[in-house]
């Protein structure tokens, strides 16, 4: 079997809102894929159709080569889910919670111990779930989704709202999984860094469609510009729409933040031209930083909006 997950020309609308508007997705064993996009892009709706929670209006979903219809029990035993927020029974301890979920799959204490170790919760095994931190709760949810050694793992924004340390702990569990198993993963995220760290394949979504897809390298090399110059100016009130219209390169100017970015591919020759342009307009450069291009920049180029607005 080539693909563990196949979504073929899938559509889903809610009261006229086209949440998913003709999307294809194919994921091979061992492949980690990120669905990256802003709020309302359609990521959750797509993942819920893959999870079998929603049915597409049109198109086909196949998991492990089978449609959900008629294969519910077979597929539930082989996939792992971690939704945006997992509800636990607060009075149960971590150990009791894992034992409960393990019993659904007929698994015993040995697997629960493995999951405690893998999710870094061994020291917390007797703690009530209500007293766990946000990061620990999320690691417990991830541990539960891995109990049945799933062939397909689906994570909906697994690290939203977590602090950077807690986020890195989740990443470390997922990177170990990637190293040691053939589980394939689809995760939705707003965080470019998360997509970049974990996933070799990225689909950028907006308004129900896939705008671009490929490896991070493919996506960023797809456009000619290699570097992003971020700049602020001393007299930002002078930087009106003409900065965008007549600049020698594509300038994105954020008048609220008083900050601009420009993408250039040949620093040696193009940077002096840009600096001359600012000077000729009477704009005084205050600060300037050169950095590599990110998926956020690519998204802005494609849509005129930022991923995090
Ligand atoms: N059950 C529903 N009823 C009505 N509209 C819905 C429903 N689910 C999703 N939508 C709409 O479909 C669009 C896509 O939503 P979806 O939650 O899939 O986006 P998302 O990319 O996951 O966003 P977020 O990152 O905020 O979770 C949005 O306009 C949303 O309001």
TrEMBL record:
The chain positions of domain ABC transporter read 5-232
Source organism, top-level taxon: Bacteria
Q: Which UniProt keywords apply?
A: ATP-binding, Nodulation, Nucleotide-binding, Transport
A GO term for molecular function? ATP hydrolysis activity
Q: Which Gene3D superfamilies match?
A: P-loop containing nucleotide triphosphate hydrolases
Span of the secretion signal? none
Coiled-coil regions, chain positions: none
Q: What CDD domains does its record include?
A: ABC_DR_subfamily_A
Task: Give the InterPro entries listed for this entry.
Answer: AAA+_ATPase, ABC_transporter-like_ATP-bd, ABC_transporter-like_CS, ABC_transporter_ATP-binding, P-loop_NTPase
One Pfam family per UniProt:
ABC_tran
Record-stated family: Belongs to the ABC transporter superfamily.
Q: What is this protein called?
A: ABC-2 type transport system ATP-binding protein
Give the originating organism.
Desulfosalsimonas propionicica
Source taxonomy:
Bacteria, Pseudomonadati, Thermodesulfobacteriota, Desulfobacteria, Desulfobacterales
């Amino acid at each position: 079997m080539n693909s563990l997950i196949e979504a073929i020309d899938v559509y889903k609308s809610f009261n006229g809102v086209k949440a998913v508007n003709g999307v294809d997705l194919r994921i091979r064993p061992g492949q980690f894929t990120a669905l990256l996009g802003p709020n309302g892009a359609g990521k959750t709706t797509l993942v819920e159709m893959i999870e079998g929670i929603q049915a597409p209006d049109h198109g086909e979903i196949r998991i492990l080569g089978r449609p959900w219809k008629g294969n519910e029990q077979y597929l539930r035993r082989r996939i792992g889910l971690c939704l945006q927020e997992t509800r636990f029974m607060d009075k149960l301890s971590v150990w009791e919670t894992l034992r409960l979920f393990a019993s659904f799959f007929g698994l015993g204490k040995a697997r629960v111990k493995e999951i405690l170790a893998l999710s870094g919760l061994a020291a917390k095994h007797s703690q009530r779930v209500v007293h766990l931190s946000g990061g620990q709760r999320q690691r417990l949810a991830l541990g539960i989704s891995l109990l049945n050694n799933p062939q397909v793992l689906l994570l909906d924004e697994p690290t939203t709202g977590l602090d950077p340390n807690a986020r890195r702990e989740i990443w470390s569990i997922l990177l170990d999984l990637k190293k040691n198993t053939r589980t394939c993963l689809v995760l939705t995220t707003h965080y470019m860094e998360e997509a970049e760290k974990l996933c070799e394949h990225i689909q950028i979504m907006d308004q129900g469609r896939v705008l671009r897809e490929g490896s991070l390298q493919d996506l960023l090399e797809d456009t000619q510009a290699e570097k992003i110059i971020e700049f602020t100016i001393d007299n930002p009130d002078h930087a009106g729409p003409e900065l965008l219209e007549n600049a020698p390169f594509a300038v994105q100017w954020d008048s609220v933040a008083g900050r601009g970015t420009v993408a250039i591919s040949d620093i040696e020759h193009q940077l002096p031209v840009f600096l001359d342009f600012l000077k000729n307009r009477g704009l005084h450069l205050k600060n300037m930083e050169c950095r590599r291009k990110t998926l956020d920049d690519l998204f802005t180029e494609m849509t005129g909006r930022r991923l995090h607005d």
